[in-house]
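Trying the structure run again after the queue cleared.
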Amino acid sequence: MAAEGLLMSWNDTPARTAITDFVGGVSDEGSADFVVPEERVAVFDNDGTLWSEKPIPIQLDFTLFRMAELAEEDKRLRERQPYRAAVERDYEWLSAAVVKHYHGDDADVRLLLVAAESAFAGMTVEAFEAEVLRWLKDASHPVLGRPYLSCGFTPMVELLRYLETNGFSTYIASGGDRDFMRPFADTIYGIPPERVIGSALGLDFDAGGDDTRLVYKSKLEFFDDGPQKPVRIWSRIGRRPLVAGGNSNGDIPMLRFARTGERCALRLLVLHDDAGREFAYTAGAEDALERARARGWTIVSIKDDWETVFADS
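Done. Tokens:
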């Protein structure tokens, strides 16, 4: 399948050529790199890879909205983090917490996780989905000034369709919460709920009433980041990915997992270097960029490789 018909928002650069050459090789039965369709699996991080993640990940903004509601009910919560940051909309503290995580310091992230665990305890999965969709209906990006549901990167959505047209099964494998992404992943990315892998709170099965319910526990079951990403990918799919895309140090294990000594792989690292159309930063991605340059991974520059960033820009 020619790239020109599906990668319209990509500039004619070495990054796009690397993608089309790789996909052409693994999908051509006459090629030495041919891979049968069943093994053509592509996995992508979400925050910062498929949509914007600055000044804070969008899901975190949703969780802060809930934390601020809880702090309004219990004024004592306002005196401690991360509730104080939620009430004050302190994006700097929150962004710094995420960056510190990618540098190996999880002190502030643990505060966030503990608060997030209690924020939705006792809620049913259906109520949570409805709350996500209700919030996303009106929530807008605080810097870009566009609805969060319009913050998906058009070139990456085109890449998903291009891969699927060439026999790939596409998945999201994100540190974000699985059940936060599922309600909108099909709408924004064309990826159905069953192909969304992410972090998750524990669940209880409640059969006490007339209807059965799945209810969230106040405990994180797993945090799908770093070394956990390959574990969760294998647990859910049972195959190594042939294509993997990320944007941060936390994606390195997933990108490394794509390759074996027996076959090639395409590792894509999105570089945020376009302050005019999106954001420019490398904090939390320094190790990934160093490894990408040393190992020949494909670095995708938003500034140079994408003609368009968002659908209506």
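The two ends are 26 Å apart (CA to CA). Worth checking whether this holds up in the mutant runs.
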